[in-house]
Amino acid sequence: MPMEPVLLTGIILITLVLFITRLLPIALTSIFIIAALALTGILEPHEALQGFSSTATITVAAMLILSAGLMRTGALEFLRRSLSNYCELGLPRLLLAFALVVALSSAFMNNTPVVVIMIPVIMTACRRTRLQASKLLIPVSYFSILGGTCTLIGTGTNLLIDDLFRRAGGPGFNVFDFTSVGLVYLVVGAAVVILLAPRLLPERASLSVFLTQQRDATFVTEVVLQPDSPLIGRNVGEVFSGGGSVQLRELIRNEELFMATRAENLTLESDDALIVEGSPQEIARFLASFSGIELASVVEDEQRVPMKTLQLRLVEAVVLPDSRFIGRAVRDLGLNRLYGVKVMAVQRRGRAHRYQIRAMRLQPGDVLLLQSDDNGFAALRETGAVLVVEGVEQTVHRRQRMPIAVAIMAAVVISASVFGLPLVISALVGVGLMLGTRCLRLDEALQSLDLTTLMLLAGTIPLGVAMLKTGLAEQIVSVLLHWIDPSHPWMLISTLYLMTAVLTAFLSNHAAAVLLTPIAFRLAADLGIDPHPLMIAVAFGASASFATPIGYQTNMIVMGPGGYTFSDYLRVGLPLTIVLWITATLVIPIFWPL
């Protein structure tokens, strides 16, 4: 047996382990893939580096910049305005409204900024109603994924599969080739989410839900019980009963969170942290009423200091997947020195960490509880490194250029779909126009680039090429044909979809697409059938990232604000994945006969 397929199998297995365990950052794993393919001689150096010049990588980068231009000009403000009227209509109808607006937006632009702008909208809706953010955030992420499947430009996965398809010698896809299956996929998926989410998702509130709109009147802050406090041993409900001026919002004990309703029957203990709400004067009187209770400390860059004032707001900020904060310790960020922002706590996967947070290295989806004034939060928001959960309405937009930005995006879609201009060229021209018309500054365009995603594409694309070159894809196809009856086309589609969906749940949508696309193309070639249906199955399977937060960025972004755990994604995501698997098996052969 030739050594190259064996070496490539070893590289793939190591890559899978690194992607699943996240022992190394994704960008570093991608560099490892490129270097390993070149050093082992599986690919020539120029072949190993072709991911950087891939049309998929360039097009995804261009679409990120175009999406940023729409955001900076306020073109997405219609999302907030159009949904504000639905907040009082109840959860099912609110979910339906989100499904329509989010899916439509995600079909024509990168879905990450769509979800990013929706999180503050949802938090505002939850403050105005009795709804919990945890009932809405996962569904919004799922709606964005479903909407992205409807067009070639709706998701980087479709662009990647189109690029790999063309590299293998196929004709590729047009902008709306995915639309017929995508609309059915969207309708079925949205119906399942609207039916199951209210029943299966937990009622968990993020701290930001309790931040009132009257910021100059009330504040949310943290106080800590000292060992000599007379409150120790007393019942929580007794201390905060009677509708007092200071209200308990959350109790943190040994890094475990208890919402006020769950904490009522607990007995207070030393070192309990209480998240309370009230005016500065009311909180000051509360502190004076009891000895042994103090304002919590905050992290000012490299050291912890006592909280100096209540005249500052607390907000949550989510670490975005492409943030430059990822992998860096809290003390090394310089948030206080640069922006006057102090860190009170870090929430990761539903658990709040208050101890030794200076040394914590941040991960995508982490939620930082921050203290500052409006100017500090505005400056931090402009960095693009985090999503400040509140205050999206305070973002400065270049509204006078909004029609220009919308026209540019429309021209990109029309020129590629109607006039046949290559999408990568159309998108690059759009980027040039977006910068030339000052809808977006150059530094803002650079900040919008998701380096993790781009490095993942650059590293995994040559992996797919190597699978075809070494014959590994052909060997895998031989094994599949031993178990699958090719006389039943639906079995081919069903198997490819399921394999891709399972890999997506534990790797990422891009990695799963790269591994399965060469196999689908080789399978079609060996059977002498049209490869388009099999490619469509891989594309939709790679977007079926519902059962875990790992496979898709938007799932990771909403994890912190929603206070979700892995099991929350499984509750709704697993039945959704099964229903969509059956849907794809039945629908794809109808629109794309084998």
Which structural class matches the secondary elements? alpha+beta
How much of the sequence lies in strands comes to: 5-15%
Low-confidence stretches: 207-217
Describe the biggest sheet? 5 strands, antiparallel
- State the helix count: 25
Taking the alpha carbons of the first and last residues, their distance comes to: 33 Å
- The largest sheet has its strands arranged as 3-2-4-1-5
Q: Residue share in helices?
A: 55-70%
What Rg is obtained from the alpha carbons, in whole angstroms?
Answer: 25 Å
Shape: globular
Number of domains: 2
Mean pLDDT, to the nearest integer, reads: 82
How many individual β-strands?
Answer: 12
Question: Could you please describe the fold and organization of this structure?
Answer:
The chain is globular and about 80 Å long. It has 25 helices and twelve strands. The chain has helices at 3-21, 26-39, 45-48, 55-72, 77-84, 91-106, 111-128, 137-148, 156-167, 179-200, 236-239, 260-263, 280-289, 335-339, 374-383, 402-417, 423-436, 442-448, 451-470, 472-483, 489-506, 509-527, 532-542, 553-562, 566-591, and strands at 219-225, 247-253, 256-259, 273-278, 293-295, 297-300, 303-306, 313-319, 342-348, 351-353, 367-372, 386-388. The longest helix has 26 residues, at 566-591. It is of the alpha+beta class and 594 residues long. The chain has two domains: 3-204 and 406-591, no CATH class; 211-393, 2-Layer Sandwich (Alpha-Beta Plaits), CATH 3.30.70.1450. 55% of the residues lie in helices and 10% in strands. The strands form three sheets. The protein has a five-stranded antiparallel β-sheet with strand order 3-2-4-1-5. β6 and β7 (303-306) form a beta hairpin. It starts with a helix and ends with a helix.
